[in-house]
Structure formats: C-alpha cells, structure tokens
Amino acid sequence: MIELELPYPPSANHYYRHVGPRVLISREGRRYREMVNALVRQKNIRPLPGGIALYAAFRPPDRRRRDLDNVGGKVLLDTLQAAGLFKDDCQIKRILLEMGEPVEGGRCLVRLEEMMSMPPPKQYILSGKAGENIP
C-alpha cells in the first residue's frame, strides 16, 4: 500500500494545453509533476505491479465550485504514472474519488493498493444431458 499527501492538483484545463492538433502538458502541469516526483523520490517508493485500487480525497484551497473529475481523473492518473507509482494507468482497476472541505493551500490524499485477485467463478462440467450441471 502507498499513501501520499500531495499538493492540490491543477484542473485538466490548466494541466494540459493545446498547440494546434497536439496536446501538451502546460508549465503549471510540469511544475505539479515535478513536485509529485520529488515527494515520491524522497519516500523511495517502488511501483505497484498488477491491478491497483486508487482512493483519492481532495481538499480544495477555497470554496469555489469544482468538478471532481476535472482534478481527479486523467490529471491525477498521469501525474502518478509519471512519478513511477505504476507503469501504466490501465493498471487502475478501481477508483474512489472524494471532494472534501477546503483547507488552506489545498491538498490531495492518495492511497494506492494492490488489488486482491478474485476467486475464479465456479466451474461446471456439462453431463450427457443438455443443461444439466454437475458441480
């Protein structure tokens, strides 16, 4: 399990910028990535293998209205991947995002856990009669 307290992320509108047909990470987005990378390096965290469950609690810096998916979606996943916490954001199999009350400066509490594998479904062998299941 990995737990981190991160700065509040920029919104997707400020993290990315469009230059012609290309989508680039903005100066603000690069600055945020660098802060998160530095925090992860300090803690010497190894990437999680396999499926991952992500829990993130956002505490905005003020009471302005914000869309949760605008800060907790692609921005957070791309930043955590760039910091080396997992190899590919397709490893994220479960996400729980929460917007809490504002705190001075804002912050984002993140927990990543390896997903436990689910037991395989019960296997049935079909007998000679159509549709008769034998456990």
Tag the structure with descriptive keywords.
alpha+beta; RusA-like_sf; Crossover junction endodeoxyribonuclease RusA; single chain; DNA recombination; 8 strands; 60s Ribosomal Protein L30, Chain: A; two-stranded antiparallel ribbon; endonuclease; 135 residues
The largest sheet, given as strand count, sense and whether it forms a barrel, is: 4 strands, mixed
Instruction: Report the CATH architecture.
Output: 2-Layer Sandwich
Uncertain spans: none
User: Counting H and I runs of at least 4 residues, what is the number of helices?
Assistant: 4
Structural class: alpha+beta
Taking strands numbered 1, 2, ... along the chain, how are they ordered across the largest sheet? 1-6-4-5
At the fold tier of CATH, the topology name is 60s Ribosomal Protein L30, Chain: A
Which class in CATH terms? Alpha Beta
- Count of the domains: 1
- Percent of residues in helices comes to 25-40%
Query: Care to count the β-strands?
Result: 8
Give the termini distance in whole angstroms.
Answer: 37 Å
How much of the residues is beta strand, in percent? Answer: 25-35%
Task: State the shape.
Answer: globular
The sequence of SSEs as H and E is EHEEHEHHEEEE
